[in-house]
Write a structure and sequence with these properties.
The protein is of the alpha/beta class. It has 4 helices and 13 strands. It has helices at about 5-40, 50-60, 100-105, 215-225; strands at about 110-115, 120-125, 130-135, 135-140, 145-150, 155, 160, 170, 180-185, 190-195, 205-210, 215, 230-235. The longest helix has about 35 residues, at about 5-40. It is elongated, with a radius of gyration of 58 Å. The protein starts with a helix and ends with a strand. Mean pLDDT is about 75; it is low at about 15-45 and about 65-85. Belongs to the YkuD family. One of its GO terms (molecular function) is glycosyltransferase activity. Pathway: Cell wall biogenesis; peptidoglycan biosynthesis.
């Protein structure tokens, strides 16, 4: 068989052209495939993030049945636990204070007891005498009334109006007829009787007044500070 070099060269050229075309087509196919893959991997617009349920559905390849949120009617909600009663064997006893101690712990009010025969007034807290002072009481015909009364007025450096001639001594003077202080405990609606100071020191300890109870100015000042409005006043014969 004879060898035709020209013919073989023509065939080789055709084969190279055909092979090169296949290579181009194959390369183009690979390029298109890669582009398609890239297109699939690269979203054209931003997608919202998947929820937990959507992720689980994709993993399980089936929808998940939603679970209802618990409500107050569900059995998992219970009332707050009640307080546990103490164990009698280990419980500490409550402290108790005897009645007499409780009564003594409460401060008792101050009261006044006037003894006309002794011509003394006693400042008492309960049954305890805290102070006593000499006094002048009503003279015959002007006796100091007896009985149980209470303090209804307290005045510092009181004024005075004479029941006989209407003479007036203005307040603010310790040397007035009523002295430095006034503690009223009796009235008939017009006249009043009470403890008061006096410039007549020599009368203290006697029956010399018109029903009031005279005291030394220093004593009435002290007693004035010890009593309060509404304090009980007991006047004994």
């Amino acid at each position: 068989m004879s060898f035709n070099l020209s013919r073989h060269r023509s065939l080789i050229r055709r084969g190279l052209k055909a092979g090169f075309g296949s290579l181009l087509i194959g390369s183009l196919g690979v390029s298109l495939g890669a582009t398609s893959a890239i297109a699939q991997l690269s979203p054209t617009r931003e997608q919202p993030p998947l929820t937990l349920r959507e992720l689980l559905e994709r993993l399980n390849n089936r929808p998940i049945k939603p679970v209802a949120e618990p409500t107050l009617a569900d059995p998992i909600f219970t009332a707050p636990p009640a307080a546990i009663p103490p164990d009698p064997a280990t419980a500490q006893p409550e402290s108790s204070i005897p009645l007499e101690d409780a009564e003594s712990a409460v401060e008792q009010a101050v009261s006044l007891r006037l003894d006309l025969s002794d011509r003394k007034v006693y400042v008492q807290r309960g049954d305890t005498v805290e102070a006593s002072f000499p006094v002048a009481v009503g003279k015959p015909g002007w006796e100091t009334p007896t009985g149980e009364f209470e303090v209804f007025s307290q005045i510092t450096e009181p004024g005075w109006t004479s029941p006989f001639d209407g003479a007036v001594v203005p307040p603010g003077r310790s040397d007035g007829p009523l002295g430095a202080r006034w503690i009223g405990f009796w009235t008939d609606g017009t006249n009043e009787i009470g403890f008061h100071g006096t410039p007549n020191r020599e009368s203290v300890g006697t029956a010399a007044s018109h029903g009031c109870v005279r005291m030394y100015n220093e004593d009435i000042r002290q007693m004035f500070d010890m009593v309060a409005m509404g304090a009980s006043v007991i006047v004994e014969p």
